[in-house]
Amino acid sequence: DYQSRIRNFSIVAHIDHGKSTIADRILELTDTVSKREMHAQILDSMELERERGITIKLNSVELKYHAKDGKDYIFHLIDTPGHVDFSYEVSRSLAACEGAVLVVDAAQGVEAQTLANVYLALDNDLEIVPVINKIDLPAADPDRVKDEIEDTIGLDAQDAVLASAKSGLGIEELLERIVTDIPAPQGDFEAPLKAMIFDSVYDSYRGVVLSVRIDDGIVKPGDMIEVMSNGKKYEVTEVGVLSPKAVSRDRLVAGDVGYLTANIKTVRDTHVGDTLTLANNPTTKPTPGYRPAKPMVYSGMYPVENAKYDDLREALERLQLNDAALEFEPETSQALGFGFRCGFLGLLHMDVIQERLEREFDLELIMTAPSVDYHTTLQNGDEKTVANPADMPDPSDIREIQEPYVKAEIMVPNDYVGPVMELSQRKRGNFVTMDYLDANRVNVIYEIPLSEIVFDFFDELKSNTRGYASLDYELCGYRPSDLVKIDILLAGEVVDALSFIVHRDFAQARGRAITEKLKSVIPRQQFEVPVQASIGNKVIARSTIKAYRKDVTAKLYGGDVTRRMKLLEKQKAGKKRMKAVGKLDVPQEAFMSVLKMG
Ligand code: GTP
């Protein structure tokens, strides 16, 4: 029967352990794409993904495999991103699967996101097929990695597939194991339609294209479907599968993973995680869905030209169609005008959104420094959530401020435990516990304010451990903190978009660092500009941007043309992202300087 030959699975791994390369080899070996069409990491179709070599959006593809038992199988492979910012996307794809291929690098071993992804897979009751990849590397030590998988995950790894995605070794064995180890879906064809939406993309011709996993029943063009959470109804116009190009079908049935269009014009009506059913024969129970994405950091986003505000809103709406984790709402800044406060999963996510807005929608943006959301309790007992530092109430009105903390798991070789603890302590972390993974590696657990993680924790962690540490974190709640808002004044005026929140103990040092930094990034103007940092009315640091000389190159003797050109180039590049703030031209960099004070 049809369903017994379907296998729905994801590939999960720590970043760079080789998921995408394994997916490429699988596509090749199953002739899903011809050699001619094959290009590296074909599933990473977004231009940005290919340039950065990372997977951002999950992608699903149907492939056919002729197994050694003589039968033909249909695989639905759902690729997932590995970066901690995108673990939400991982959980969405896992909910559409019966199994997960767990890829572990034979030289690196189990890393923080290996564990995090395994837990997500186990939460979804998935069958896990372990693969030890990159066994071609000289530093590969598959036996050690097997033991590590057993010790840390408790998964029998003695018969893990040994693979080299680079050479193709072990890929066929992996395909066989997918057939034998991962269960077929158990949907009921006769039951009313029950389909889970696990992704959506906006297409200007067809409207919203939904990625769906059919749990029960059948869906075909012409059917009237209903979105269970809001009762909206649509007539199905097309169903099909990605192979990896879209191929339309006359129906999708229980166990299938494919796409569906129904002239849906706004994706807000079809949330990822929602259940579709038939309007005239609805199922009684929606699919369990999965945990919704919650933004961790917020930043203000403003068009460089005020006239582009509507374009920016439209672009954000478009992006939100295929990025359920992106949140935004209008905000106004005295300094920057009309813009949006946007919520992101993390800094990488923020970066990716900014870059997509600029490339795909041709917008020039000013982003303010990212902030977490703070919970304040006012003297009168009211509670207020503050995601924009500029909105922080006056200190005299505040009874208590709480900030989000994360539980951070840091995996690191023994030798670096010292530096990791020193760093975590310095970032206001509270030590929780430390587990030995094996003779050489330790899992160090701290509770650390999210704001410290957002700033530069990861970079510092990497440099303090020569790149050996890996990090995973999740929100663990809000804790009271002695926090203050620092305002920045340029030429005597508070620039609201530069305000930031910091622990009182660090206020002085950060105030000083930022006034120095701003002095170096804001170009000289025709007049002298004082830069001040203040808490309330109290100035805690200051610097001065000197008045500018008409032509930066005037001082140079005429002969050195290349040097002169270089300087002019530099001036031009500096001009690119300027925003007029009062009488000053302030570059994008200035708004991010709070991040880069070191
Ligand atoms: P993200 O998509 O960013 O999460 O990473 P990924 O896990 O998909 O890793 P990817 O497939 O992009 O591989 C990471 C790097 O490892 C690339 O440079 C690959 O060429 C390399 N790589 C993958 N598999 C192998 C292998 O079997 N052997 C060797 N030597 N290198 C490999």
UniProtKB/TrEMBL annotation:
The keyword DNA damage does not apply. InterPro entries: EF-4, EFG_III/V, EFG_V-like, EFTu-like_2, G_TR_CS, LepA_C_sf, LepA_CTD, LepA_IV. One of its GO terms (cellular component) is plasma membrane. Its EC number is 3.6.5.n1. GO terms for molecular function: GTP binding; GTPase activity; ribosome binding; translation elongation factor activity. Keywords: Cell membrane, GTP-binding, Hydrolase, Membrane, Nucleotide-binding, Protein biosynthesis. One of its GO terms (biological process) is positive regulation of translation. Its main location: membrane. It is found in: Cell membrane. It comes from the Bacteria. Residues 4-186 form the Tr-type G domain. The keyword Membrane applies. Pfam families: EFG_C, GTP_EFTU, GTP_EFTU_D2, LepA_C. It is a peripheral membrane protein. CDD domains: EF4_II, EF4_III, LepA, lepA_C. GTP binds at residues 16-21, 133-136. It catalyses: GTP + H2O = GDP + phosphate + H(+). NCBIfam families: lepA, small_GTP. Required for accurate and efficient protein synthesis under certain stress conditions. May act as a fidelity factor of the translation reaction, by catalyzing a one-codon backward translocation of tRNAs on improperly translocated ribosomes. Back-translocation proceeds from a post-translocation (POST) complex to a pre-translocation (PRE) complex, thus giving elongation factor G a second chance to translocate the tRNAs correctly. Binds to ribosomes in a GTP-dependent manner. Belongs to the TRAFAC class translation factor GTPase superfamily. Classic translation factor GTPase family. LepA subfamily. Belongs to the GTP-binding elongation factor family. LepA subfamily. This is Elongation factor 4. It comes from Holzapfeliella floricola DSM 23037 = JCM 16512. The gene is lepA.
